[in-house]
């Protein structure tokens, strides 16, 4: 399952700690304490030469872009600052285990009295590294194993193979990543993958075999992504009791889609932010580049965070999405939105609200439009146990969630659609404890009181546990 609210499966993100490379071995790009600037800023200098020692398979032309600013330095403070910035850029490439900077006076016949030489001493990563990881998302866990070939062609390319085995999802994929020299944020990624997922709330099993090509680039303060994806999808029944709508959609389909994503993220943390905001917009158009799935899909996410008194944080978030079929063919259960559970509308069971099949099975079929909003107050634990240490990973959590999910008759017009989304709103409130697992994931243990429950909704009245990366 690709997102918290959408059925479509995505390939694994290609990341994980390096086997044989400990975190302490990789230099943290932190600025050393600067000497007294009033002494050093007055001395004009000229950077005559910049050396890079320790290169093996890395091409020198790639590094020229990263270190060129060092030559623009006019005094010692400038040299130190620009050398540090260049060191950060070299580490960001993900091809060096260690980067050290040595600044010395120039020597030789052409040396100037105020000339300096800057030397970057680098240690390259191994040609092949292993990776292991545990991932938490969509209220499920998985174990990830993989192999990485960093700097495979000498210009910061990366070839990655990953295998993931989880409680509801198993996948493997091959990824090739290549950045543009001198502009690491502008890069391309090629993926080949297979993902098999089980969705018990819909009595559905889905297997995706796909390829994708993705271009990422910055524009002003935004991160932009353009992507083409071709997926062969196989849907099947997870249980003999699967309802007729699930059986009717079982079989093979081919989706070819173009998508665009834009992200503005000023938060200080993606897991449990204290300040800043997030705006995420995604559009997907399927059917114009082949395949038998035709639709236009739009969804967005907004989040605002504000630090208040007594180290408390007020957070507000809003999600929304719309799925429009193109042509006479109805939308697929694999493309619709899903809502409910400990990562979205708390107090309801996982993806167990909205349109549902008739009969005993009561499978959830997803919706073509949804919205969800949340208001949260995070405070330190009472009496601040473990303050300044382990206790700071915990927060007390008060929340109010609301939302709705439905199918739309597109002949009725926008006003009728909005009215339908405003009717019979599901909402819940409660309190609990949040545990932040570094910048990887977060865990929640909440006491929930669901309200506005509609016929067919499955609720979790009382204690509910949640684990994941993306929460409403």
TrEMBL record:
Domain (POTRA) ranges: 45-125
Pfam families listed in its UniProt record: Omp85
Coiled-coil spans in chain: none
Membrane topology, as annotated: Multi-pass membrane protein
Cellular localisation: Mitochondrion outer membrane
Keyword entries, A-Z: Membrane, Mitochondrion, Mitochondrion outer membrane, Transmembrane, Transmembrane beta strand
Top-level division of the source organism's lineage: Eukaryota
One GO CC annotation: mitochondrial outer membrane
GO BP field: mitochondrial respiratory chain complex assembly; protein insertion into mitochondrial outer membrane
PROSITE patterns for the chain: POTRA
Region annotation Disordered: where it falls in the sequence: 1-22
Similarity section: Belongs to the SAM50/omp85 family.
Name recorded for this polypeptide: Sorting and assembly machinery component 50 homolog A isoform X1
Lineage start: Eukaryota, Metazoa, Chordata, Craniata, Vertebrata
